[in-house]
Design goal:
Blueprint (H helix, E strand, L loop, with lengths): L1 E6 L11 H4 L4 H14 L3 E6 L3 H11 L6 E5 L8 H10 L3 E5 L21 E4 L4 H11 L4
Parallel strand pairs: 1-2, 1-3, 3-4, 4-5
Helix pairs in contact: 2-5, 3-4
Protein backbone atom coordinates (compact mmCIF):
# COMPACT_ATOMS: atom_id res chain seq x y z
CA UNK A 1 0.00 0.00 0.00
CA UNK A 2 1.27 3.48 -0.88
CA UNK A 3 0.52 6.30 1.54
CA UNK A 4 1.33 9.95 0.92
CA UNK A 5 1.86 12.31 3.85
CA UNK A 6 1.41 15.99 2.97
CA UNK A 7 2.51 18.67 5.43
CA UNK A 8 1.58 22.30 4.98
CA UNK A 9 3.01 25.68 5.89
CA UNK A 10 5.49 26.06 8.73
CA UNK A 11 5.76 22.35 9.45
CA UNK A 12 9.32 22.58 8.16
CA UNK A 13 9.99 24.49 11.40
CA UNK A 14 9.11 21.55 13.66
CA UNK A 15 11.63 21.10 16.45
CA UNK A 16 12.31 24.81 16.75
CA UNK A 17 8.91 26.49 16.36
CA UNK A 18 7.02 26.70 19.64
CA UNK A 19 8.36 23.40 21.02
CA UNK A 20 6.02 23.70 24.01
CA UNK A 21 3.13 23.22 21.55
CA UNK A 22 4.63 21.16 18.73
CA UNK A 23 7.43 19.24 20.45
CA UNK A 24 11.15 19.03 19.74
CA UNK A 25 11.20 16.43 16.96
CA UNK A 26 11.93 17.79 13.50
CA UNK A 27 9.70 17.01 10.54
CA UNK A 28 12.45 14.77 9.17
CA UNK A 29 12.50 12.86 12.50
CA UNK A 30 8.73 12.39 12.46
CA UNK A 31 8.57 11.35 8.80
CA UNK A 32 11.55 8.97 9.02
CA UNK A 33 9.93 7.23 11.99
CA UNK A 34 6.65 7.02 10.10
CA UNK A 35 8.39 5.52 7.07
CA UNK A 36 9.92 2.81 9.30
CA UNK A 37 6.53 2.07 10.84
CA UNK A 38 5.06 1.88 7.36
CA UNK A 39 7.67 -0.66 6.27
CA UNK A 40 6.93 -2.75 9.36
CA UNK A 41 3.23 -2.69 8.43
CA UNK A 42 3.80 -3.38 4.72
CA UNK A 43 3.18 0.15 3.46
CA UNK A 44 5.33 2.55 1.49
CA UNK A 45 5.19 6.01 3.06
CA UNK A 46 6.18 9.00 0.94
CA UNK A 47 6.01 12.56 2.15
CA UNK A 48 5.91 16.12 0.90
CA UNK A 49 6.03 19.50 2.62
CA UNK A 50 5.49 22.96 1.23
CA UNK A 51 4.74 26.41 2.51
CA UNK A 52 2.77 27.09 -0.69
CA UNK A 53 -0.89 26.20 -1.09
CA UNK A 54 -0.65 25.61 -4.84
CA UNK A 55 2.28 23.22 -4.44
CA UNK A 56 0.29 21.19 -1.90
CA UNK A 57 -2.69 21.04 -4.26
CA UNK A 58 -0.48 20.05 -7.21
CA UNK A 59 1.12 17.22 -5.21
CA UNK A 60 -2.21 15.88 -3.95
CA UNK A 61 -3.66 15.96 -7.47
CA UNK A 62 -0.60 14.08 -8.76
CA UNK A 63 -1.26 11.39 -6.15
CA UNK A 64 -4.31 10.27 -8.12
CA UNK A 65 -2.04 8.94 -10.84
CA UNK A 66 1.03 7.70 -8.93
CA UNK A 67 -0.48 4.72 -7.13
CA UNK A 68 -1.23 6.50 -3.87
CA UNK A 69 -3.96 4.66 -1.96
CA UNK A 70 -4.32 6.92 1.06
CA UNK A 71 -3.44 10.41 2.23
CA UNK A 72 -2.39 11.77 5.59
CA UNK A 73 -2.72 15.54 5.60
CA UNK A 74 -1.49 18.10 8.10
CA UNK A 75 -2.53 21.31 6.36
CA UNK A 76 -1.18 23.56 9.12
CA UNK A 77 -2.81 26.98 9.10
CA UNK A 78 -4.50 26.24 5.76
CA UNK A 79 -6.88 24.02 7.73
CA UNK A 80 -8.82 27.09 8.73
CA UNK A 81 -8.64 29.11 5.51
CA UNK A 82 -8.33 27.00 2.37
CA UNK A 83 -11.45 26.14 0.43
CA UNK A 84 -9.14 25.28 -2.50
CA UNK A 85 -7.33 22.61 -0.48
CA UNK A 86 -10.69 21.26 0.72
CA UNK A 87 -11.94 21.06 -2.86
CA UNK A 88 -8.75 19.27 -3.90
CA UNK A 89 -9.22 16.60 -1.22
CA UNK A 90 -12.82 16.15 -2.28
CA UNK A 91 -11.84 16.01 -5.95
CA UNK A 92 -9.12 13.37 -5.76
CA UNK A 93 -11.32 10.91 -3.86
CA UNK A 94 -8.44 9.41 -1.86
CA UNK A 95 -9.13 8.26 1.70
CA UNK A 96 -7.73 11.12 3.79
CA UNK A 97 -6.97 11.48 7.47
CA UNK A 98 -6.43 15.03 8.75
CA UNK A 99 -3.71 15.22 11.42
CA UNK A 100 -2.69 18.02 13.77
CA UNK A 101 0.07 17.79 16.35
CA UNK A 102 -1.73 20.14 18.72
CA UNK A 103 -5.37 20.07 19.74
CA UNK A 104 -6.79 22.72 17.43
CA UNK A 105 -10.08 22.65 19.35
CA UNK A 106 -8.36 23.73 22.57
CA UNK A 107 -6.48 26.63 21.01
CA UNK A 108 -7.49 30.02 19.64
CA UNK A 109 -11.09 30.22 18.44
CA UNK A 110 -10.08 30.76 14.80
CA UNK A 111 -8.39 27.33 14.84
CA UNK A 112 -11.57 25.48 15.84
CA UNK A 113 -12.97 25.33 12.30
CA UNK A 114 -11.52 22.98 9.70
CA UNK A 115 -12.42 23.20 6.03
CA UNK A 116 -10.77 19.78 5.60
CA UNK A 117 -12.69 17.76 8.22
CA UNK A 118 -15.96 17.46 6.25
CA UNK A 119 -14.17 15.77 3.33
CA UNK A 120 -11.75 13.64 5.37
CA UNK A 121 -12.39 10.11 6.63
CA UNK A 122 -11.22 11.24 10.06
CA UNK A 123 -9.35 13.83 12.08
CA UNK A 124 -6.65 13.20 14.71
CA UNK A 125 -5.64 16.14 16.88
CA UNK A 126 -3.53 16.78 19.95
CA UNK A 127 -1.53 13.55 20.05
CA UNK A 128 1.71 14.93 18.67
CA UNK A 129 3.66 12.74 16.24
CA UNK A 130 1.66 9.71 17.35
CA UNK A 131 -1.26 11.13 15.34
CA UNK A 132 0.60 10.38 12.10
CA UNK A 133 1.13 6.75 13.12
CA UNK A 134 -2.51 6.33 14.10
CA UNK A 135 -3.59 7.80 10.77
CA UNK A 136 -1.26 5.41 8.94
CA UNK A 137 -2.67 2.43 10.81
CA UNK A 138 -6.23 3.56 10.08
CA UNK A 139 -5.55 3.85 6.34
CA UNK A 140 -3.84 0.45 6.24
CA UNK A 141 -6.86 -1.06 7.98
CA UNK A 142 -9.11 0.34 5.29
CA UNK A 143 -10.65 3.47 6.78
CA UNK A 144 -12.48 5.25 4.00
Amino acid sequence: MKILVVNGPNLNLLGTREPEIYGTKTLDDVMESLQKTGLDLGAEVRWFQSNHEGALIDRIQAARDDGTEGLILNPGGLTHTSVSLRDCISGVSLPTIEVHLSNIHARETFRHHSFIAPVAAGQIVGLGALGYELALRALIQGVR
